[in-house]
Amino acid sequence: MKNDLKERLRQDRSPSFGTWISSSSVVALDALKGLGFEWFMIDTEHAQVNPETLAAMVAVLGGTGPTPLVRVGNVDQYLVKQALDSGAQGVLVPLVSSPEDARRVVAYAKYPPQGVRGAAAAAASRYGTELGSYLRSANAETLVGVQIETREALTNLEAIAETDGVDLLFVGPQDLTLSLGLLDDRSHPTVREAMRTVVDAAERHGKVPGTLVVTPEEKRVAVELGFRFVSLAADVRFLLDGATRFLQS
Predict the structure, then answer these.
(1) Which residues are CB-neighbours of 244 under 8 A, at least 6 positions away?
(2) Model pLDDT for residues 164-220, shown as the tens digit of each residue
């Protein structure tokens, strides 16, 4: 296993742009894959993606499309294992609010001795035909991300950020805004300042700061704040924006 995205994030500080796949549609993923996104985050937390669909999405990307990453639904060993066994090259785990949560995420994503992930003859190892080489490379090559999206996570930010094995600190902007009592006011100065603290913590501890934006203005702000892993909206957002423009014209 060779994760070019993880290496690029280590070596190149310019922003890396991907998008969210939240439609549960293999067709949407296939249609978008040649446009120049560096990675796709396949959402299995809020989207209705079952394991079979997830496997099909990762297979469609193959080794030449955007890097396949999966946002799982919880800090859960089974969900992390299933995502990585599908062939995804990284996971993003929501609602990580303590260093204990972060350590559990790392353990679930890594094989012994660094973690507790179980081996399987699954798609990630070409159904066992490349199991030896996969086992020897997966711990180093798998991208491990945790979402910072609660007041508790902000309180514990330094301890989360210094967790060995965490590569990506990803701000979930809408949930963080809700947690701060601001409903949908994502541009509120309190939210922006919280996002800045995540970027600063990431830089201090050698992690990559990430977030999701839904407008060009949010993208500009995110880059100015220092985020280096940025999801440009989502497949469903592109569908809605395109249809709206046609209807308005």
Answers:
(1) none
(2) 999 999 999 999 999 999 999 999 999 999 999 999 999 999 999 999 999 999 999
Give me the architecture of the 4-248 domain, per CATH: Alpha-Beta Barrel (3.20)
Bridge pairing between strands 208-213 and 143-148: unpaired
Cβ 195 vs Cβ 189: under 8 Å? no
Asked if 113 and 178 touch (Cβ cutoff 8 Å), the reply is no
Distance CA 213, CA 19 (A): 9
Domain ranges, ordered by start, for the chain: 4-248
C-alpha to C-alpha distance for 23 and 40, rounded to whole angstroms: 12
Q: Is 11 exposed, middle or buried (0-12, 13-18, 19+ CB in 10 A)?
A: exposed
CA distances from 155 to 28, 93, 102, 105 (A): 38, 18, 14, 19
Q: What is the pLDDT of residue 63?
A: 79
Catalytic residue numbers read: 46
- Contact criterion met (CB below 8 Å) for 119 and 142: no
Task: Tell me the C-alpha distance between 207 and 120, whole Å.
Answer: 29
